[in-house]
Amino acid sequence: MAQPDAAAQPDTAAAQPDAAAQPDTAAAQPDAAAHPNTAPAQPNTAPAHISTAAAADALVRLGLPANTASAAFRPVIPGAHASGPAMPITHLGSVDVLLETIAEAQPGAIMVVDNGGRHDEACVGDLLTLEAKLAGLAGIVIWGCHRDTAQLVDIGLPVFSLGAYPRGPIRIPPAGPAMRTAIIDGIPVQHDDWVIADDDGILFVPAASAAAVRESAASIIQTEQAQSQRMLDGASLRDQIGFADYLAERAANPTYSLRDHLKARGGAVET
C-alpha cells in the first residue's frame, strides 16, 4: 500500500528528446564542393584525335622520316579518321589471309592490306568490312581497291583505298602460309607500327617513335587551336608571330628563315 503507484511515476521516456529533433550534424558539414581548398576539375585540353597534318609536322620537328603514303589514297567515307597499331598482310588472291588477320587482331588495330597497288580487282568488300568492325578493328588501309561502296558507307568503319572496282580477285593464290607483312607505296609496314589516316592522307610511324610523335603532334594541335582562337578574338596571325619583327631581322640577315623565327617564338604555322 505504501508503494507509489507505477502510473504515478514520471514518464521519463517522454522527457527524453526526440531523436528526430536532434540537430542534423551531417547537414551541418560543409559541402566538399564548396570547400575553399578544393581545386576545381581541370578541363581536358588533349585533342580528340591526332590529324595526319599534325603528325607529319611532329615527324619533321623530331627529325624522323615521314613515311607518307601516296596521295592517291582516299577515305571511302569523307571525314573518316582512323589510328592504331598496324596489322600488315599481303593479299595474294584469297580472302583467307584477311579473315586470319581479323581473328588475331586486337581491338583498335588497323588492318593494312598490301594488294600491290592493283586497280584491276577489289580485295575488300562489305562482308569483310563488317567482320572487321564487329571484331573491334579501328579501320582498314588497302594498297589496292575496295568494292560495295554504298554498303561500306552504311557499315561506317573507316576504310582507305585507291578507289572502287566492282570485280573481286580471280587469281589463283599460291599455296603457303599467310604473309604478315606489307609494303605500301614503297613503305615497309611492320606489326604494331602506328597508322594514322584521314582526309589528308596516311602516315606510318615506327612503333618505337609513336609515343613521341603523338605527344609532339598534340602540342602542335593545341598551339594552333590557341592561335586560331586569338585570331577570332582580333589578333591577326601576323601579329601573333611577330611577322614585322621577322621581316626586319630577315632584311638585316638574309639567311634568317621563318622557321628560325617561329622556333624562337613557339608559333605553329610551319615546322
UniProtKB/TrEMBL annotation:
Family per similarity comment: Belongs to the class II aldolase/RraA-like family.
Function text: Catalyzes the aldol cleavage of 4-hydroxy-4-methyl-2-oxoglutarate (HMG) into 2 molecules of pyruvate. Also contains a secondary oxaloacetate (OAA) decarboxylase activity due to the common pyruvate enolate transition state formed following C-C bond cleavage in the retro-aldol and decarboxylation reactions.
Catalysis performed (reactions): 4-hydroxy-4-methyl-2-oxoglutarate = 2 pyruvate; oxaloacetate + H(+) = pyruvate + CO2
Keywords (A to Z) from UniProt: Magnesium, Metal-binding
Region named Disordered: 1-48
InterPro entries membership: RraA/RraA-like, RraA/RraA-like_sf
Binding site for substrate: G125, D126, L127, L128, R147
Cited SUPFAM superfamilies: RraA-like (SSF89562)
A GO molecular-function annotation: metal ion binding
EC number: 4.1.1.112, 4.1.3.17
Residues binding Mg(2+), per UniProt: D148
Domain of life of the source: Bacteria
Cofactor list: Mg(2+); a divalent metal cation
Name of the protein described by the UniProt record: Putative 4-hydroxy-4-methyl-2-oxoglutarate aldolase
Subunit structure: Homotrimer.
